[in-house]
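Hi R.,

As promised on Friday, here is the backbone we talked about, encoded as structure tokens. Could you run it through your design pipeline when you get a chance and send me back a sequence?
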């Protein structure tokens, strides 16, 4: 996880020294983002950092774009007799309203409709190794809101900050495609 955060910080710093800036959200332009965040799904502990990706490929009018969003997080915790593992995944369709399209600072707000999948399992060890029966999977549809902004450093690259359902907050890199 430290390697992912180090790489993200390096890329962000690299693009922050760009002397030109352009906003790339426009009708007909696609964007893709990768981000890391925190919170959501009730996951805590080591490794519970959500990793997210989005691809926006439907552009309407001047201010609206839509696409898909996915996020994954997994964590585990050891206890005396074994280990619990928790996983949380969401896949959603999203639409965002861009308040200032064409500007370097590009705030947005939108809605997502998706499906979430949560699972947990336990693995017992030692004298209890034969009792590996506790696991559960749940899922369901959700409707949520998100908000954030893209800050464009060049024609192709922007930093993104986003808050919403899962993860609760994230920081990432957006590329104009």
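Update: got your reply. Pasting your designed sequence below so it's all in one thread:
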């Amino acid at each position: 996880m430290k390697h992912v955060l180090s790489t993200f910080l390096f890329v962000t710093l690299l693009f922050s020294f760009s002397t030109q800036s352009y906003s790339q959200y426009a009708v007909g332009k696609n964007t893709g983002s990768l981000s890391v965040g925190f919170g959501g799904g009730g996951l805590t502990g080591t490794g519970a950092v959500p990793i997210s990706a989005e691809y926006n490929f439907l552009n309407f009018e001047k201010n609206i774009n839509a696409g898909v969003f996915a996020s994954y997080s997994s964590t585990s915790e050891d206890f005396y007799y074994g280990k619990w593992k928790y996983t949380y995944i969401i896949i959603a369709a999203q639409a965002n309203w861009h308040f200032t399209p064409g500007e370097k600072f590009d705030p947005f707000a939108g809605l997502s409709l998706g499906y979430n999948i949560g699972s947990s399992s336990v693995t017992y060890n030692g004298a209890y190794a034969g009792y590996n029966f506790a696991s559960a999977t749940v899922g369901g549809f959700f409707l949520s809101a998100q908000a954030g902004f893209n800050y464009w450093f060049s024609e192709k690259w922007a930093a993104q900050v986003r808050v919403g359902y899962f993860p609760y907050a994230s920081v990432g890199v957006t590329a104009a495609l």
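One thing I noticed while checking it: Residues 49 and 89 are 12 Å apart (CA to CA).

Thanks again,
M.
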